[in-house]
Design brief:
The chain is mainly beta and about 60 residues long. It is about 0% helix and about 35% strand. It has no helices and six strands. The strands form two sheets. A four-stranded antiparallel β-sheet has the order 5-2-1-6, with no helix packed on it. About 15% of the residues are buried.
């Protein structure tokens, strides 16, 4: 089970397989995602990386 904070609204995987939760929609860089200075982020888990990590950005609602 993964503990996802209530404030997380987006979940994304970086190129190294790390999954992060974001309070606002993250921006993409050359190796992953980053918060846009207005929000928070938290590392959730690390899994095997996938080649198509850029397609691994999902909106999330904890309810």
């Amino acid at each position: 089970m993964i503990n996802v904070p209530e404030w997380v609204r987006f979940i994304a995987q970086d190129s190294d397989g790390s999954w992060w939760g974001y309070s606002v929609e993250p921006l993409e860089n050359h190796r992953g995602w980053y918060e846009n200075e207005l929000g928070r982020n938290v590392k959730l888990i690390k899994t095997a990386p996938v080649e198509q990590w850029r397609k691994c950005l999902f909106s999330y609602n904890s309810k």
